[in-house]
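Students often ask why we bother encoding 3D structure as a string. The short answer is that it lets us treat folding as translation between two languages. Here is a chain of 75 residues written in the first language.
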Amino acid sequence: MAGLCNLINPERVIVGGLLSRAGELLLVPIRESIRRHAVFSAASGSRSWAAAFVERAELLGSLALALQASEKRTH
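And here it is in the second language, the structure alphabet:
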């Protein structure tokens, strides 16, 4: 995760699928790893959450990105 933060500097890291059911049990070590191993400027703005829609998180996230991209093209 820290490597991904360094590479793409995401605003959000969302854990989806069955792993999201672990909640804070998984998110606490992820946040700590990002804090310790990522470049400060890349990790300081990033937040980590568990997905709310466990079964369809990937589908809904992809759809949201597609809609956001299409809105940018029309404006």
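Translate back mentally: The first strand starts at residue 12 and ends at 15. Keep this in mind for the problem set.
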